[in-house]
User: Fold this.
Amino acid sequence: MTRQEEKIESENVRIAIIEDERDLREGLRSMINFSPGFRCVGDYRSMEDALRRLDISRTDFVITDIGLPQMNGIEGTRILRERFPDLPIIVFTVHDEDDKIFKALCAGANGYLLKHTEPVAIIAAIKEVLGGGAPMSPDVARRVVNLFRTFAPPEKSEINLTKQETKILKMLTEGHYYKTVAYELGISTGTVAFHINNIYEKLQVHSKTEAVTKALREGLV
Assistant:
């Protein structure tokens, strides 16, 4: 059982919502608060408001829309991922276009749900992310599979990763976080961060999801 899964068993998972539609925002908040093991600790009408007010010390999870006023949820996800590398984020949106799905995942989203998703499936998706998974609505999953099919991996990659970097990159594709990589390899989280920064630089990416996407697409692991 992961640390996140243990948290569900022992106390409330604290969730922040970023959604500009009032009725939907209040509906999500009520659903979360009435679900055992979960609690809404903040709801924001814009990404700017969330970035200004979100207290990471009391937030375990973020659900965000894409179509927000001013800064959209994709750019906001990228900023949240840069600030808080281990913060789980699910995109919850009406948008099912290939480019938005791909950009959201590359920005660092851990999952992608469409707004017709049933409440019980939303809670299940949150649990899946906390367990290391990457849940997607069925239509989105099919689109992601089709996206990957459009990319043919090169015969030989010219990216020169060290053995340790390759091992860590493989662990990232398996759903590990900084702390679990450090635990499995017997090294500090600072050392893990050092290797991951090198991986990002060599792959020319800016997030875990973007690194995983490129690793799988180019057959690096």
In short: The chain has a mean pLDDT of 87. Strands lie at 13-18, 38-44, 61-64, 89-93, 111-114. The radius of gyration is 17 Å. The CA atoms of residues 5 and 131 lie 6 Å apart.
